[in-house]
């Protein structure tokens, strides 16, 4: 899901080898199977001999650093649900609830289910994810744990006989939500919610699909920049129990060891989500602190100060809930283990731009209390982006979004 182009290139190479012979394809598959899954931005090189054993075939496959627009159709999701329903579904997914998508067409179902998880960027869904559930496995929708599952509408009749509990049913054909808990429209702070709705409203205009995808993605990224973008200021270095001065956004280089969490345990731990030698043992906690042992001390994320740094009460309530999700815990644990040079994705770029923006306008680098600025800015961004990309498309073709993406925020 997060490396579609990477896997597509590998499958294409398998197809090319299979055209030569089945043995060549099998040899390549065996060599590829022994290679580790590369982290974002890294590559793997696969070497295998030809049929005559006199030639060595070398293939290199690179995983993109940022795959948020990689084979994802946000516009399909927006048009299927509409703005209000999309934000409600997004809010439910953000709180890691059970969400069941239903559609009559396989293409619509698959596209929309993939799109909703991609909107979580820079966070990653950590629970059950089944884009299209086979009819013989419908019992999966009775799971007590969070899930995102897609199901063809022809199987809906069987749901009435199943013991479903707190499942949000999303009908993509009718743009209807069933079995709502009632708070889906209030989970995101009101002013931020309004600003997001306004930004998405501009994506309904008659513009290119690639442009819509970029604008939708940027709107949700901006939401996360405004709500959790100050997390770097709450990464603190300690040595022998003494707090050391640490500039916002810096981390210990080459930090290795176990990520530890102290506090009151809520439920069982989660498994390691990174392909690294350092083990990661995270648990869901209240009032917890996450830390990693480095060469000069302990780098610690202070969750309580992170939440309390926000002046808006509604945003603090949102962060208290969101900080208890596994996607947020994994996000912080990843940042604790990374060296500064490794944090080079789009979200970190947007944070740097936001910090520069706050500095030049003489605002605090924490979340600004007047979130109306966010709404006004999103309006200006949408108008500027539409105008610029529309004028660029005839001249630059489908890659015009890439040329303009760095100007989005």
Question: How would you sum up this structure, described in words?
Answer:
Helices cover 41% and strands 17% of the residues. With 409 residues, it is an alpha/beta fold. It has a 5-stranded mixed beta sheet with strand order 4-5-3-6-7, covered by helices on one side. It has a 5-stranded antiparallel beta sheet with strand order 9-8-12-11-10. Strand 1 and strand 2 (56-62) form a beta hairpin. Helix 3 (74-81) crosses helix 5 and helix 6 (190-201) packs antiparallel against helix 7.
Summarize the structure.
By secondary structure, the protein is α/β, with parallel strands linked by helices. Helices cover 41% and strands 17% of the residues.
Layout of strands and helices, then pairs:
Layout (H helix, E strand, L loop, with lengths): L3 H17 L1 H12 L9 E7 L6 E7 L11 H8 L1 H12 L3 E6 L2 H13 L9 E3 L16 E6 L14 E5 L4 E3 L11 H12 L7 H20 L6 E5 L2 E3 L14 E7 L19 E10 L2 E6 H6 L4 H10 L3 H12 L8 H15 L11 H25 L3 H5 L5
Parallel strand pairs: 3-5, 3-6, 4-5
Antiparallel strand pairs: 1-2, 6-7, 8-9, 8-12, 10-11, 11-12
């Amino acid at each position: 899901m997060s490396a579609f182009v990477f896997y597509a290139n590998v499958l294409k190479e398998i197809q090319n080898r299979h055209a030569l012979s089945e043995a060549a394809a099998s040899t390549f598959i065996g060599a590829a199977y022994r290679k580790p899954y590369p982290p974002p931005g890294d590559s793997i090189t696969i070497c295998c001999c030809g049929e005559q054993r006199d030639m060595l075939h070398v293939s290199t496959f690179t995983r993109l650093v940022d795959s948020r627009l990689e084979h994802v159709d946000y516009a399909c999701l927006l048009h299927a649900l509409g703005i209000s329903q999309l934000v409600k579904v997004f809010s439910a997914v953000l709180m890691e609830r059970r969400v069941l998508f239903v559609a009559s067409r396989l293409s619509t179902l698959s596209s929309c289910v993939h799109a909703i998880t991609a909107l979580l960027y820079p966070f990653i869904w950590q629970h059950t994810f089944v884009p299209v559930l086979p009819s013989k496995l419908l019992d999966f929708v009775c799971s007590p744990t969070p899930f995102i599952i897609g199901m063809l509408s022809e199987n809906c009749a069987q749901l009435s006989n199943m013991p479903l509990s707190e499942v949000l049913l999303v009908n993509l054909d009718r743009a209807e939500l069933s079995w709502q808990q009632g708070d889906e429209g209030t989970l995101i702070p009101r002013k931020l919610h309004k600003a997001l709705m306004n930004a998405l409203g501009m994506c309904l205009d008659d513009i290119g699909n690639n442009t819509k995808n970029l604008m939708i993605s940027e709107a949700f990224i901006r939401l996360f920049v405004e709500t959790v973008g100050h997390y770097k200021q709450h990464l603190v270095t300690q040595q022998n129990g003494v707090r050391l001065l640490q500039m916002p956004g810096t981390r210990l280089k080459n930090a290795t060891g176990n990520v530890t969490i102290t506090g009151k345990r809520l439920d069982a731990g989660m498994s390691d989500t990174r392909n690294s030698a350092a083990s990661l043992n995270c648990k869901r906690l209240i009032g917890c602190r996450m830390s990693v042992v480095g060469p000069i001390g302990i780098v610690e994320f202070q969750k309580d100060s992170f939440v309390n740094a926000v002046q808006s009460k509604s945003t603090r309530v949102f962060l208290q809930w969101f900080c208890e999700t596994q996607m947020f815990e994994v996000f912080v644990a990843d940042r604790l283990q990374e060296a500064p040079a490794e944090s080079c994705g789009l979200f970190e770029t947007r944070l740097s731009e936001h910090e520069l923006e706050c500095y030049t306008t003489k605002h605090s680098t924490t979340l600004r209390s007047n979130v109306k600025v966010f709404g006004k800015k999103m309006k200006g961004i949408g108008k500027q982006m539409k105008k610029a990309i529309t004028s660029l498309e005839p001249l630059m073709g489908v890659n015009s979004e890439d040329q303009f993406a760095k100007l989005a925020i």
